[in-house]
């Protein structure tokens, strides 16, 4: 439930502010965007400052609204040492930053739905990291409650260094992918033109159990598209029917 709360909260908040401020609530994501040149270093500094102040204010509000002491500080779980916590936070933060880079920074047909993908990514990251490190995935998430509660803990530095390394790692992978022209590896993946699809369904089987037979639309289906210069989906009679009727059928080229 906690992981779902994180993911859904980010999904809604990001969709609300996506076209206002870029929906940047994470200083490590801001760092990644600065490293790849999506925002200027000065703009990133202002973002990070606002995110840190916002985290402190949010933690103070929660502390004032909830009974008892604030108990949302991030600390490594029993059995998890600082080195393990560092790398866990690095990898989950890099995964989140890379999702932002590929879904929101890269412009494509699914960019307007980037908040959905980013929210689901955070849900997956929290699902794994919360039992191990508390699931910060965000330096501000660890810093705000620590300031509000006055308790930083001996492993607090992990939540600064780990997510920062994650931002650097995701930026490096993104830059490498761009310089490798990743869009040429599997071209037209987000294309909506049906002419980019295979123009014909392979006629390798006519039986009802064949994947290209009845289960794929019936025996002997032949596929094409209106503007591709060939015929639309056309059903050819079953071979047994042709033999019984004594008709001579031939396939269109």
Helices and strands in order:
Layout: H1 2-17, H2 27-35, H3 41-65, H4 82-105, H5 114-133, H6 139-149, H7 158-179, E1 221-222, E2 234-235, H8 239-245
Antiparallel strand pairs: 1-2
Helix pairs in contact: 1-5, 2-3, 2-4, 2-7, 3-6, 4-5, 4-7
Explain what you see.
The protein is mainly α. 53% of the residues lie in helices and 2% in strands. The protein is built from eight helices and two strands. It has helices spanning 2-17, 27-35, 41-65, 82-105, 114-133, 139-149, 158-179, 239-245; strands at residues 221-222, 234-235. The chain has a two-stranded antiparallel ribbon. Helix 2 (27-35) runs antiparallel to helix 3, helix 4 (82-105) packs antiparallel against helix 5 (114-133) and helix 4 packs across helix 7 (158-179). The longest helix has 25 residues, at 41-65. Mean pLDDT is 82; it is low at 207-235 and 247-253.
Mean pLDDT: 82
Q: Helices and strands, in N-to-C order?
A: HHHHHHHEEH
Shape: elongated
Count of DSSP strands:
2
Helix content: 40-55%
Cα Rg: 27 Å
What is the beta-strand fraction?
Answer: under 5%
Task: Note poorly predicted spans.
Answer: 207-235, 247-253
- Biggest sheet architecture: 2 strands, antiparallel
Q: Note the gap between the termini.
A: 57 Å
Structural category: mainly alpha
**In which order are the strands of the major sheet placed?**
1-2
Number of distinct helices: 8
Which short descriptors sum up this protein?
elongated; two-stranded antiparallel ribbon; disordered C terminus; 53% helix; mainly alpha; 253 residues
């Amino acid at each position: 439930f906690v992981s779902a709360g994180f993911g859904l909260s980010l999904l809604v908040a990001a969709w609300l502010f996506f076209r206002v401020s870029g929906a940047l609530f994470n200083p490590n994501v801001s760092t990644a965007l600065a490293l790849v040149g999506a925002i200027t270093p000065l703009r990133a500094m202002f973002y990070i400052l606002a995110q840190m102040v916002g985290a402190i204010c949010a933690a103070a509000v929660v502390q004032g609204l909830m009974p008892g002491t604030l108990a949302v500080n991030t600390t490594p779980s029993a059995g998890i040492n600082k080195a393990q916590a560092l790398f866990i936070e690095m990898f989950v933060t890099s995964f989140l930053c890379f999702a932002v880079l590929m879904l929101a920074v890269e412009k494509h047909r699914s960019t307007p739905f980037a908040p959905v993908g980013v929210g689901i990514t955070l849900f997956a990251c929290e699902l794994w990291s919360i039992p191990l490190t508390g699931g910060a995935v965000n330096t501000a998430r660890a810093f705000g409650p620590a300031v509000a509660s006055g308790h930083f803990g001996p492993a607090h530095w992990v939540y600064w260094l780990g997510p920062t390394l994650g931002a650097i790692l995701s930026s490096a992978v993104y830059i490498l992918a761009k310089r490798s022209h990743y869009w040429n590896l599997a071209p037209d993946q987000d294309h909506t033109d049906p002419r980019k699809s295979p123009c014909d369904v392979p006629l390798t089987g006519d039986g009802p159990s064949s994947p290209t037979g009845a289960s794929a639309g019936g025996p002997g289906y032949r596929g094409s598209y209106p503007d591709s210069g060939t015929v639309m989906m056309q059903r050819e009679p079953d071979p047994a029917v042709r033999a019984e009727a004594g008709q001579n059928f031939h396939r269109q080229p």
